[in-house]
Amino acid sequence: MDHSYEELRSVALDILAGREKGTWEASQYENLRKSISDALETRSRGQQTVNSSLSAHDSELFLELFWDLFRQGIITLGLNDYNREFPWFRVTSFGKKLLAGQEPYFFHDLSSYEKVIKDEVPNIDDTTLTYLKEAMQAFMSGCLLSSTVMLGVATEHTFLLLMENVDANTAHGPLFSGISNERSILRKVNKFKKILDQNNSLLPPKVKEDLDTNFTGILSMIRNFRNESGHPSGKIISREQVYVEFFANVGYGRSQAAIL
After folding, report:
1. Where are the domains of the chain?
2. Mean pLDDT in residue range 109-137
3. Which of 72, 227, 237 is nearest to 155 (CA)?
4. What's the Rg (C-alpha) of the chain?
5. Contact status, residue 38 vs residue 51, Cβ threshold 8 Å
6. Residue 100 near residue 17 (C-beta atoms within 8 A)
7. CB within 8 A of 125, min separation 6: which ones?
């Protein structure tokens, strides 16, 4: 029976994370392939299966999957200093953190991140989504500085859209007048937050909740990383830091939608 790429990946991640015990130690290419095959058969039949085989279709997909896991930094080649080469492999320190933090959001490629964003922010602007997808593509390619800059652009674009909606609102627009005249994003954000704080009683409970964290705090963090990456500061952004930015962007987008 043939399976989809996502089905194979799901089983592989469960095995690598230790959530499902493989029939073979996941330290060699062929062992992981056999464990995935046995796990799929066990799930299908409802009883323990050993020494099953992937179909030709699934074997080709697994080849792609293995090198995707390597390219995305979840696994690396070599078991230890004595077994440094393929077919040996091990889960990286980044991979362990990622696999351990599967909830509440878990994204490992462009499609899974796009799904998370659209689920949480159904009305996300197409231009914002384009920058977020570009950021994820850069991240998957190991271009961390580029990824951080794109995340910053997406975040600032979302804020500017928020300001356009506020200006167009006949009830609340006058309260926030003058923000669009500020020259820099930082000044716009600071003025917007100051007005929000002064009129906190007008905000509905769902907007007040964690506003400082999910709106101001995240916006500030992503902007700081974007500025450090977009200028020759010499500041090195780690893969883990960028992954956290992707995670935080979900909460930021949700808070923006709540304000709107």
Report:
1. 5-100, 110-259
2. 84
3. 227
4. 22
5. yes
6. yes
7. 157, 158, 161
E strands along the chain, which residues? Answer: 75-77, 89-91
The two structure tokens encoding residue 186: 């930082």
Helix (H, G, I), strand (E, B) or coil at 88: strand
Instruction: For residue 110, give the nearest of 81, 79, 139 by alpha carbon.
Output: 139
The packing angle between helices 93-100 and 5-17, to 10°, is: 100
Query: Per-residue confidence at 103, pLDDT binned at 50, 70, 90?
Result: very low
Residues ≥6 apart with Cβ < 8 Å to 253: 117, 120, 121, 124, 158
Alpha-carbon distance of 58 to 222, in angstroms, equals 39
Rounded to whole angstroms, how far apart are CA atoms 2 and 51?
A: 17
Average pLDDT, the chain: 80
Which overall architecture, per CATH, does domain 110-259 show? Up-down Bundle (1.20)
What fold characterizes domain 5-100? Arc Repressor Mutant, subunit A (1.10.10)
For the chain, how many residues are written? 260
Confidence of residue 121 (pLDDT cuts 50, 70, 90): confident
Tokens of 183: 């020259």
In this structure, which amino acid lies at residue 121?
V
For 68, the token pair is 């995707």
Q: Give the burial class of 143: count Cβ atoms within 10 A of its Cβ; 0-12 exposed, 13-18 middle, 19 or more buried.
A: middle
Global pTM reads 0.59
More confident residue, 23 or 13: 13
Q: What is the pLDDT of residues 185-241, one digit of tens each?
A: 778 888 888 887 787 776 666 666 556 555 666 666 666 666 666 556 666 677 777
**226 three-state secondary structure:** helix
